[in-house]
Design a protein that fits this description.
Elements: E1 6-11, H1 15-26, E2 31-35, H2 42-47, H3 49-66, H4 83-98, H5 103-109, E3 111-115, E4 118-120, E5 125-128, E6 131-140, E7 144-146, E8 174-178, H6 182-193, E9 197-202, H7 213-226, E10 229-232, E11 234-242, E12 245-252, E13 257-262, E14 264-267, E15 271-273, E16 287-288, E17 291-292, E18 305-307, H8 318-332, E19 346-349, E20 354-359, H9 362-367, E21 373-378, H10 383-388, E22 394-399, E23 405-412, H11 415-427, H12 432-437, H13 447-461, H14 464-474
Parallel strand pairs: 1-2, 1-6, 2-3, 6-18, 8-9, 8-14, 9-10
Antiparallel strand pairs: 4-5, 5-6, 7-15, 11-12, 12-13, 16-17, 19-20, 20-23, 21-22, 22-23
Helix pairs in contact: 1-8, 3-4, 3-6
């Protein structure tokens, strides 16, 4: 029997790698965690979720101060933003969270942490900082990086990605964002609110192209109302310097070319897997352009080598990476044949209003040929949303022909938090009748979840057939008031 230095080795100290390292070490496996960056936490902590949401919140507060009169408060003359202070706050927040992802913490759990370069020598052995280390099982969790397409002239200008934008010392006066996905749209609204003139360029005719058109268009309408400009259905022909500014030539689907200029250029055109320099071919691991090829148990072609998180080309969310890390622990350490199931994986785009989803949206359901029904409820009918002046948006509940939930989308205030009730309900198989009858505190935004579920039952409970039956059996006398002509429908 072969003897290895470690039971399990993990390459990458982001969400997936940290989950595996923590679980494996606490279960008694001799665990090695390797990270090429000088600190643990991965892209999410240092260049992604944490800094972006910190920036978004600062921008939201600044926006509310500038529009204090909406809440019956005095109009405030707000000075321009000192972006260096925001950048310092971002680093302060990162530093606090970093303590939880420290080398010392993982050492206390029983995992050895090594910082440096690593590549495979064979299926069980890696070169780590010039020395050889072996493990019975390996996990590749190296994440992803911004994809930079071969746009003519792009390399000749000083452009930004998510790795640079949160450490800017000064706020750009204007910015072009290439990409209309979640990163591009979140940053567009945040920087626009902080005073930057933002233009978004998208290849698709819709922002947030994986979402339902009506929901995405509502987000775009909010951003446009706040001052963000859009060129959708546009392809970038070239980029060139224009003095201190950047010039981007676009070819429009509607015909013709146009040049746009700005002080800063943010490239947010997707992600690529971090597999370079790992020499995965030496380990017999198959890699495709989108990422490492894995089976439903997250095993590569070499069954003792796993790939979790962004690097396998699946869902590029921190919570998905953490979930996949748990799948790896089950298979690699506990030897329980557990497979991934993304049916009820939620996600959220943190614009204002937020857009959160779980399961199938309406477009995906109809594209799959599913006979579905869509129930909606507006935040304009939610009393808490009215009190907070946050009435834009709605919830959509997608049902199949048997009235079973296929998915939920929420566009509205704190949608990312509101979707959590559906995460529990859908994963736990909770009946819609249970959700509709559950007592929610008043007034809360979460009442919208109860209301949309109730919309399935109200037409049945309050139907003419039921009324006639009750009149017959209980001698009910019917209406006590007739509406005047032109009155709207009674609320349920």
């Amino acid at each position: 029997m072969a003897v290895y230095d470690y039971d399990i080795g993990i390459i990458g100290g982001g969400a997936a790698g940290l989950t595996v390292a923590s679980g494996a070490a606490q279960l008694g496996a001799k665990t090695l965690l390797v990270e090429k960056e000088p600190a643990l936490g991965g892209d999410c902590l240092h260049y992604g979720c944490v800094p972006s949401k910190t920036l978004i919140h600062s921008a939201r507060v600044y926006h509310q101060i500038k529009h204090a009169d909406r809440f019956g408060l005095p109009v405030v003359d707000v000075p321009p933003v000192d972006f260096s202070r925001i950048a310092r706050r971002i680093q302060d927040v990162i530093a606090v969270i970093q303590r939880h992802d420290s080398e010392e913490r993982f050492c206390r759990l029983g995992a050895k942490v090594v910082f440096g370069s690593v590549f495979f020598r064979d299926a069980h052995t890696v070169d780590l900082n010039g020395g050889r280390v072996s493990a019975k099982t390996w996990v590749v969790a190296t994440g992803s990086s911004p994809a930079v397409p071969p746009i003519p002239g792009l390399a000749a200008v000083d452009f930004l990605t998510n790795r640079q934008i949160f450490s800017l010392e000064t706020r750009p006066g204007s910015m072009i964002i290439l990409g209309a996905g979640p990163i591009g749209i979140e940053m567009a609204q945040a920087f626009n609110r902080l005073g930057t003139k933002v233009t978004v360029v998208g290849r698709s005719g819709q922002i947030l192209s994986r979402e339902d058109r009506d929901m995405a268009d509502a987000v775009q309408a909010r951003l446009a109302a706040e001052g963000v400009s859009f060129y959708l259905g546009a392809s970038v022909q070239r980029v060139s310097p224009d003095g201190a500014r950047k010039c981007v030539r676009l070819q429009l689907d509607s015909g013709g070319n146009i040049d746009i200029r700005a002080d800063a250029l943010l490239v947010a055109l997707g992600r690529r897997p971090n597999v370079e320099d790992l020499q995965l071919d030496a380990a017999g691991v198959t890699v495709e352009p989108v990422g490492i090829v894995v089976d439903p148990r997250l095993r590569t072609r070499q069954k003792h080598i796993f790939a979790a998180g962004d690097v396998n080309g699946g869902f590029q969310f921190t919570h998905a990476a953490g979930y996949e890390g748990g799948i790896v622990v089950s298979n690699a350490v506990l030897h329980l044949p557990r497979k991934v199931d993304y049916t009820w994986l939620p996600w959220c785009t943190y614009t204002d209003p937020e857009l959160a989803s779980i399961g199938m949206n309406e477009r995906r359901a109809r594209a799959a040929g599913i006979d579905c029904t869509v129930l909606t409820e507006s935040f304009r009918a939610n009393d808490r949303a009215l009190t907070e002046g946050e009435t834009d948006g709605r919830i959509k509940l997608i049902l199949d022909k048997k009235e079973k939930p296929l998915g939920v989308q929420i566009l509205g205030p704190r949608a990312g938090d509101l979707i959590a009730e559906w995460v529990v309900a859908l994963n736990g198989g909770v009946k819609l009748s249970s959700l509709a009858s559950a007592v929610h505190p008043y007034p809360t935004l979460a009442e919208i979840n109860k209301r949309v579920a109730g919309n399935l039952f109200s037409p049945k409970i309050f139907s003419e057939t039921v009324q006639k039956g009750l009149k017959l059996f209980f001698n009910l006398k019917g209406r006590a008031c007739a509406p005047s002509p032109g009155d709207g429908p009674a609320e349920s």
